[in-house]
Amino acid sequence: MRRERVPIVVTALAAIGAAFFILPLIGLLVRSPWGDALAALTAPETVEALKLSLIASLSATAVALILGVPLAWVYARVEFPGRDLLRALTTLPMVLPPVVGGIALLLAFGRRGLLGAWLYSIFGITFPFTTTGVVMAETFVAMPFLILSVEAGLRSMDRRYEEAARALGANRWRVFTRVTLPLIAPSLFAGAVLCWARALGEFGATITFAGNFPGVTQTMPLAVYLLLETNQEASFILSLVLLLVSLVVLVALRDRWLGSA
Amino acid sequence: MSLEASVTLSLGPLDLDMALEINEGEVVALLGPNGAGKTTLLRAIAGLIAFRSGRVLLDGAVLEDTSTRRYVPTERRSIGFVFQDYLLFPHLNVLDNVAFGLRSRGASPQAAVDSAQRWLEQVGLQSYARSKPSELSGGQRQRVALARALAPNPRLLLLDEPLAALDVTTRAEVRRDLKRHLLSFAGIRLVVTHDPLEAMALADRLVVMERGHLVQTGTPAEVTERPRSQYVADLVGVNLLRGDAERGSVRLASGLTVAVAAAETGEVFAVVHPRAVAIHRSHPEGSPRNVWPGRASSIELLGNRVRVRIDGDVPLVAEVTPAALRDLHLVEGGDVWLSFKATDVGVYPA
Fold first, then answer.
1. Is the ipTM of this complex over 0.85?
2. Cα–chain-centroid distance for residue A98?
3. pTM of this prediction?
4. Which of B42, B72, B75, B158 should one mutate to test binding to chain A, selecting the residue with the greatest count of A CBs within 10 A?
5. For the segment B22-61, what is each residue's pLDDT rounded down to a tens digit?
6. How many C-beta neighbours within 10 Å does residue A109 have?
7. How are beta strands B290-302 and B305-311 bridged, if at all?
8. Does A15 map to a domain?
9. Average per-residue pLDDT in chain A?
10. In terms of residue numbers, what domain contains A64?
11. Which among B48, B73, B104 has the least Cβ separation from residue A168?
């Protein structure tokens, strides 16, 4: 087959498009003070922020799995009026500006929020400006990725395997845990990783709902942003760390999700 | 001790209305063309599909009854189901596939594995215990599916086109094995198939269904001798005519009369074996009472016989030897006369 001749205009625009992504990455690599990297990475604030980020993002992923898988199952398997609307509402955070999400969370779970006021007056529980608040903000923003991925997996799986399991005497729980979940494992894994990556990078909802307290709510993205004003070099290094994490996720998921097919 | 099922349901273009009874010790084959509703009936018996009215009884116990709204879920029915494409769990190895039903029904892990091992030995696959289903051949998968269905020792074994997924070369061998396992299984056995050869090889009794309804039931010999539908006649390869019998003749819907040597009266089927139909290039002389002109519409070589399809007032298939065909100088589209003797026509009430 003859190679297709690529029009020069297309080539030029494509090159500019690619450069637009690649230049900032090069900038980050070139301008990072490699000599101070170790010091910046081992600074107590950095370690703290990194630890908090990992704990909060993994917790958010766990919560998303516990709540999101059943939700995805309901979307995929149960017909009920208003299902499409409900699905749209629960995946809204994917397109919502995160700051708006943070404000909405405050209005619901803040000390004077719909549910928050009640929780505070009876149990004395508050969420904003706590690590729990960070997890909530991250879950709010990241869970939709998991829901959509798992729902797609459930819809595309061959349900006759579930029938085969039932014919072998498996009750619903056993069918779900031994057949359904293993069969949708790729979607589940991809959804969980995307969800985790999104939670790790969460900024807007977190700073709005949980604030920016070192050691309590100051996650990596928040620390990077803050360091930009006090210690630029350190912020470059931390940015690189986050970049590296994203890259690993992208490579890990290349075949499963972002498919080059 | 038996299975008793009567099921009415509509599913897309299918209107199913079937009653079926299988006695202890019987192997029954549910035979019919694609879309006849065989699999749907099987799924209804297993409780995998809801039906409008009817009931399913196993050993006298109600599994489902629409009049009393009783429904025993599939997982609590004592059934083994071999699916058409086997549906072996792709994420489990062969041993865990076979052990799955035992574990589901409460066996301890060790007991389930021990029993699964024994079943794998029975089907000759013990060395594949750790293999994934994707590493097996079609015939091996079929045996694993059978072992998996039989391992929990069900009362009722349902097989949906157990050999359809296999290629022709392995089918005969797997069919022989399947026959052996079916014979050694003590429960009630129901095999769905669209292949008459398979049905006759595996089953004691055939239940033929078309378009959701029962057409005929009987032993393979009975069904072969007295087909009651065009579908069955085509399957067993005979010419089936239907008409009104009166004093040694049968008047067909086309107005033509076929001379027969039977005393039946009323609505009848008449069968003529293709071998009994003779082909001539000119009007034959002699004794045959049934002589018609026609046109050879297709000529097909089948082993050492040639099947000639003849269009005319009564379309018939004749079977001749290749040598006879040569002597006739017959080509497709050629005009012929066909004849058969009154004594070669089998007649029985419709």
1. no
2. 12
3. 0.81
4. B75
5. 998 889 999 998 889 999 999 999 999 999 999 999 998 9
6. 24
7. antiparallel
8. no
9. 89
10. 36-258
11. B104
CATH code for the domain of A111: 1.10.3720.10
Six token digits for residue A1: 């087959």
Of A161, A168, A183, the CB nearest to B101: A168
Task: Give the minimum alpha-carbon distance from A202 to chain B in angstroms, rounded to a whole number.
Answer: 35
pLDDT digits (tens, 9 = 90+) for A136-181: 999 999 999 999 999 999 999 999 999 999 999 999 999 999 999 9
- pLDDT at residue A257 in the model: 52
Q: Which two tokens stand for residue A196?
A: 């985790």
Q: Test A169 with B76 for CB contact under 8 angstroms.
A: yes
Q: Which residues of B touch A174 (CB under 8 A)?
A: 104
Quick one: tokens of A126?
A: 């508050």
Sign of CA dihedral B87, B208, B156, A163: positive
The total of structural domains in chain A comes to 1
Sign of dihedral through CA atoms A122, A124, A129, A130? negative
Helix (H) or strand (E) holding B322: helix B322-328
* Average pLDDT value for chain B: 89
Q: Which stretches within B151-247 are classed as H helix?
A: 168-184, 196-202, 220-225, 230-236
Is A130 a member of any domain?
yes
Residue A22 within any structural domain of the chain:
no
In a domain, A2, yes or no: no
Q: Where does the pLDDT of residue A11 fall: very low under 50, low under 70, confident under 90, or very high at 90 and above?
A: very high
A124 close contact with B: CB closer than 8 A: no
